[in-house]
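In this supplementary section we document a worked example of the pipeline. Step one takes a protein sequence of length 326 as its only input; no multiple sequence alignment statistics are reported here. Step two produces a three-dimensional model, which step three serialises into C-alpha cells for compact storage. The input and output of this example are shown verbatim.
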Amino acid sequence: MRKGRGPGMNEVARAAGVSQKTVSRVVNGEPYVSAVVRDRVLRVIRELDYRPNNAARALIRGTYHRIGVVSLGSALSGPASVLMALEQATRRTGYSFALASTLENPGGGYAAAVESLLEQGVDGIVLSDPIDDGAPSDLTTDVPVVSLNVVGKEGVAAARAGTEYLLSLGHRTVWHIPGPQNWWSARDRLRGWREALAAAGAPEPPLPDAGDWSPAAGHTAGLRLSRTPGVTAVFAANDEMAIGALRAFSEAGLSVPGDISVVGFDDIPAAAYLAPPLTTVRQDFQALAERALGVLLARIEGRARPDGLADLPVHLSVRQSTAPPP
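The serialised model returned by step three reads:
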C-alpha cells in the first residue's frame, strides 16, 4: 500500500518537461502528441507510479465519470437490495459509485443529500428510494437526475399479481396491509391492489392504518384483521409486515392458510423458511437498476433515451401460506 498522497498530474508534467494538457492527452490516448513526447511521459508515469484520481479525470474529460445515488439509508430488504443492484450495475458500466444517505442529512433530506453528491463531483444522480419527504420533484441540479419510481412501475404490476392470485383461489376479496404512504413504492403497491380488485369486480375493504414496513406494524394490523368478520385473504405491502401478521393470526387462534391466506412482497430470504412458508412476490432489482442507469447514462452522454422499454419481470413465489377460502 502506498502511504500518503500520490503524485499529481502537475508533478508528472514537471518531471517530463511538458504541460498538464499534454499529460492528459497521453493518459487518455488522444492524438497530437509526438511519439517521443508520449514515450517520455509514459516513462515518468511509471517511475512516479502516477494514478489519475477522480479530480484529474474530471479535468481531463470534463466529467467525473461517477454516478451518485441518494438512499434513505434503510436496512429493509427491498431498499438494501436495490442499493446493492445499483452499485453492481454502476461499476459494470465503468463509472464509479458515490452514495449519500438522507439519514446523514436529517435537516435537509433529499436536497442536502443531492448537494453533498454534487460537492463530491458526479455526472448524474439516481434517487433509489423516493419518498415525499424532501420533495424530490423540487430538486434543481445541473446534472441529470433519475428516480426509480419513474423508470420502474413494476411495483404496481407485482402488487396486482399477488392480489389476483388470491382472488384466483376463490377469495371474495383481499384485505391489504399498506406501507407508509409517503413512500412511492407503498403507493404503487396500494394502487396495484386496488386495480386487481376493481378488475375482478371485488369489493374494496377498508384499509387499516398504514404500517412502517416493520413486523410490529404487521402484527398490529393482523390483530385488528383477526377480529374483523369475513377476512380470508390478506396482501401485505412487504414481507416483514406479513411476518408480523402471521404471528398475530397465530395468537388469535387462526390457521394460515386454513382460515386466512397471506401474501407478502419482496421475497426476502427468510420467506421460504417461515411456518408456513410465505407466498410472496418480488421484482427483478438488478433489471430495475440497469434500466435506471441506462436512462441516466443516455442523458449524461447526450444519447436518445432508450425507448420501447419492456416490462420488467415480476415473479410470484407460491408457497404454503395461501389456499382456497374455508
